[in-house]
Amino acid sequence: MTQTTFDEYAHEVRSGHLTWSPPHKSDDFWKKNARRIMEENNGELPKCLAQVLKEGHEKTALAVAAHDIGMLVKEVSEKRRVWDGLNAKAQVMKLMGDSDPEVRFESLKTVQEFLRHAFGG
Fold first, then answer.
1. For 56-83, what is each residue's pLDDT tens digit?
2. Rounded Cα distance, 73 and 81, in Å
3. Fewer CB within 10 Å: N-end or C-end of the chain?
4. What are the tens digits of pLDDT across the range 29-56?
5. What is the domain count for the chain?
């Protein structure tokens, strides 16, 4: 059986070693899979992304995790409060001051998504 893109993404997120593999940059992937990512296994993947933010020391992994959270907020905005419960929103806000420009950029984009949806918009 061949792995689906979702399976490959889930495996990567569970590993905590995030890279800019194709799903991360695919709008089509996010449109098709965002809800499943948020809901499958009692929100296991969002918890893994939040864990990367909290414990990640690898700059690329931090940037990718921040990016993915932003895409999930954009595509499944009604679930954005999940990120508060995981303390991920606060972690992303902290990363806006990171020394790495890619981490700062992705964090800023994600905070913009949180703000855009903060008032139901």
1. 889 999 999 999 999 999 999 999 889 9
2. 9
3. N
4. 999 999 999 999 999 999 999 999 999 8
5. 1
